[in-house]
Amino acid sequence: MDSKSSISVTKFFRDNEKTLKLKWVAGKKGADREITEESIHRPGLALAGFFDYFADKRVNIIGMAEYAYLNSLDDTSRDNAIRRYLEEYFPCVIFARGLDPFPLFIELANEIDMPIFVSSMITYHVINDTVIYLERELSPSVAVIGTLVEVQGTGVLIRGPSGVGKSECALSLIKNGAALVADDVVRISQLGGSTLVGSAKMSEMYGFIEIRGLGLINVIQLFGVSAFREKQDIDIVVTLKHWEEVGRIDRSGLETAKYRILEMDVPHITLPVAPGRDLAGLVTIAAQEYMMRSLGLHAGKVLNEEIIKRITPAKG
């Protein structure tokens, strides 16, 4: 399991420069500072002089409220507030809404190597995108061999031995409207302790799928941007196995198998592979059946209950 305990400010900036529309305006020598918590900190209370619960391990974000407060102070009080705030050690500061940092901020940040960023995005979007990124980077994660696709809103992790046809199955699904998330190696992160989210192990592999005999294929170029998702919740796991390797299979569907990922159990289906079987169609049905069961509609249980009613003698 790969569980990062921290990421550097440099990595944070590099990964988010475009998505958060960031400019690094001061404190570039503090590039090696570490971010160790997934949440962010709004320093309004700190700027007002209250430091009892200061979050010194988080990205600090200054929005219009904090900026307006500093603007309301006289020059001496504002300078004192900024000096006291920057005496605390923390990873970095982002000024949202394109707010121009006060000159003293820039001066002191360069003196103490405190990275200062400016984002042109509104504060809410800066906070939201930052938290999503940090959750993904700092949450427990694991890399698994397989292909992850989104089929009609359901995240399906397709796994199986090399050469069984995982990527070919995924390509058929994509041709029928599914979306590729990751091929070959899937990075799975546990967010919030209750959700498994998959993505490509490397961003350079976004949209690429490898098909034996054809090589790498860019599904975005072939099928459009709707054929790709950057990340996806994992709802079910489908394991492809050669027919002769499959043991006993529950034909009624009453038994619910599980596949364990990061200490979480995910519904698991084993599909035998044989010439002529429409694996893409079966995976689509599996995704649809998962959605039906999540709504409380279980075909096998309904039939089983009807049979039990027929064979149970009526009382009285």
**Could you give the order of the helices and strands?**
EEHEEEHEHHEHEHEEEHEEEEEHEEEEHH
> How much of the polypeptide forms β-strand, as a percent range?
25-35%
CATH superfamily annotation of the largest domain: P-loop containing nucleotide triphosphate hydrolases
Percent helix, as a range, is 25-40%
What kind of sheet is the major sheet? 6 strands, mixed
Spans where pLDDT lies below 50 across 5 or more residues: none
Label the overall shape: elongated
- Write down the domain tally: 2
Structural class: alpha/beta
Strands in their spatial order, largest beta sheet: 12-10-11-18-20-19
Structure report:
The chain has 316 residues and is an alpha/beta fold. It has two domains: 2-138, Udp-n-acetylmuramoylalanyl-d-glutamate--2,6- Diaminopimelate Ligase, Chain: A, domain 1, CATH 3.40.1390; 140-303, P-loop containing nucleotide triphosphate hydrolases (Rossmann fold, 3-Layer(aba) Sandwich), CATH 3.40.50.300. Helix content is 33%, strand content 29%. The chain has ten helices and 20 strands. The chain has helices at 9-16, 44-47, 64-72, 75-86, 103-112, 123-138, 166-175, 219-223, 279-294, 299-311; strands at 2-3, 7-8, 22-26, 34-35, 40-41, 59-62, 93-95, 116-119, 140-145, 147-151, 154-159, 179-182, 185-191, 195-200, 208-211, 215-218, 231-233, 236-242, 257-261, 264-273. A six-stranded mixed sheet has the order 12-10-11-18-20-19. A five-stranded antiparallel sheet has the order 1-9-13-14-17, with helices on one face. Strands 3-8-7-6-5 form a five-stranded mixed sheet. Helix 2 (44-47) links the parallel strand 5 and strand 6 (59-62). Helix 4 packs parallel to helix 5 and helix 7 packs across helix 9 (279-294). The relative contact order is 0.11. The model has no long low-confidence stretch (mean pLDDT 89).
